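4.2 Preliminary Data

To establish feasibility before requesting continued support, the project team ran the inverse folding procedure on a target of 148 residues. The structure was first converted into the token representation described in Section 3, and no sequence information of any kind was made available to the design step. The complete token record follows.
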């Protein structure tokens, strides 16, 4: 009876250790999965995601500046496939999704060139609204990779 009880305790401890190890293994896999870099997707379609604060009363000025400044420049970029503009009325936020042929082509655009276009965009908005600061705050920028 005592031997049976000892064996039962040892088996319970073994199971507990096994469960803990499994949890640790799967948890570390999840962390690695979340931390995978996008560098492995250099030659696949990537979507640039931008979120901006766009108050409802300034929505028309935002759309106009997007059309006049960003649209022509983006259309001239190698690897640019198109974009979609969305606006959330409740949050007063804009979502811009830009489709690129590859991350390599997208990231190959010099930031100095992007900054020049951004400055033109901001100048256009400030002039249209007669304000000193760009009212469209960048909330988030990121990227999405297309799933198969």
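Position-by-position output of the design step:
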């Amino acid at each position: 009876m005592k031997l049976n009880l000892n064996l039962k305790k040892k088996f319970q401890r073994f199971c507990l250790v096994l469960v803990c190890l499994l949890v640790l293994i799967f948890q570390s896999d999840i962390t690695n999965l979340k931390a995978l870099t996008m560098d492995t997707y250099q030659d696949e379609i990537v979507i640039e995601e931008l979120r901006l604060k766009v108050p409802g009363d300034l929505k028309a000025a935002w759309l106009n500046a997007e059309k006049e400044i960003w649209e022509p420049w983006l259309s001239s970029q190698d690897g640019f496939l198109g974009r979609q503009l969305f606006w959330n009325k409740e949050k007063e936020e804009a979502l811009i999704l830009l489709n690129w042929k590859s991350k390599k082509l997208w990231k190959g655009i010099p930031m100095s060139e992007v900054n020049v276009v951004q400055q033109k965009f901001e100048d256009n908005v400030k002039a249209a609204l007669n304000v000193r600061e760009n009212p469209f705050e960048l909330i988030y920028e990121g990227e999405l990779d297309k799933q198969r």
